Amino acid sequence: MTLPVYNRGLVYHKVSAEREWGITTTTPKQFKAQIDLLRHLGFDFTTIADRGTSDNPILITFDDGYSCIREFAAPILHEYDAPATIFAITDYVGKKNSWDYFPEAKQITHMAWTELRELSDLGWEIGSHGSTHKRMIHMSQKMIRKELRESKLELENQLGKEILTFCPPFNAWNSELVYEIEQAGYRSIAISYPLSGLPTWSGSFIPRLGVYLHDNSLMFKGKIITNPFSPLAVFQQQVINHLGDGKILENWLKPAK
Q: Which domain holds residue 136?
C-alpha cells in the first residue's frame, strides 16, 4: 500500500520523563510509540545528510541538543537502528538553556561535547542551530556571519566532520538569511511548515512539523500522512511558530530606555 505522504521531517525538542512548563516535551512512552508506528508504516529512519539513500525516508530531528535526548531518545532509537539529526547551539553545549523563557529553577542542560561526539560516531548527524539561539533575521550582517560561520567551525573542530545543515532559531528566516547561510557553506536548511515564499538557492529546504506533548496518535499521523488531521497539524505549527518565534523573548530582554 502506498501511503499519501506529504511530510517527512519531524522535530522534537525534549524527550523526558520529567515534567516541565510548556508543551515541547514528549514522554519516552509517547516517543517509543511514535517511532514504533513509523517503523510499522514502513519508513526508513535516516539523517538529513543521508536522506537521498532511502526510497521511503523519515527524518527524526531534535532542536537545541538537550541532554535528555541522549538519556531517553537515543536508547529508543538505537533499538530500531535509527539515526537522527541534532541541531546544537554551540555557545550552550554542556550548559543550561538560559537563553529560553524559563526561570533558572526550570532550566535544563544541553548535551556536552562528549555526548554529541558519541552520537555522531553512531551515525547521527549534528547540524548547527547557531551560536546563541538568537533570532537572526534582524541582526547585522556582521553578526549573522559570525553566528553562521563560528558555529559551523566549532562543530567541525569538535566533531571532525563537515557540517552542512543549518536550522534557524525560532524558525525565523528570510531571503537575506538564506543567502548568508549559503555563503557560509551550508547545503540544507531545516524549516517548519507552512511553506510559503521560499527563495531559490543552491541547497535544499528540509520541511518539518513539530511533535508536542498533547499530540495524540491521530494528530501524529496527520503530521506525515495526508488525512483530515493534516491541515490541523500545519495550523498548529503555524500558531506555535508565531507564539515562539523569539519576538516576545527579545522584547522582554530589551533594557528599558
A: 9-253
Report d(CA 92, CA 149) in Å as an integer.
16
Amino acid at 23: I
Identify whether 188 is part of a domain. Answer: yes
156 compared with 246, residue with greater pLDDT: 156
| CA distances, 175 to each of 45, 130, 160, 198 (Å) | 30, 17, 30, 8
CB count in 10 Å sphere of residue 47 = 22
- Residue 58, in any domain of the structure: yes
pLDDT band at 3 (very low <50, low <70, confident <90, very high): confident
* Residue type (1 letter), 244: G
- Domain contains 167: yes
**pLDDT averaged over the chain?**
92
Percent composition of the chain: helix, strand, coil (DSSP 3-state, to 5): 40, 20, 40
Residue pLDDT, tens place only, 33-75: 999 999 999 999 999 999 999 999 999 999 999 999 999 999 9
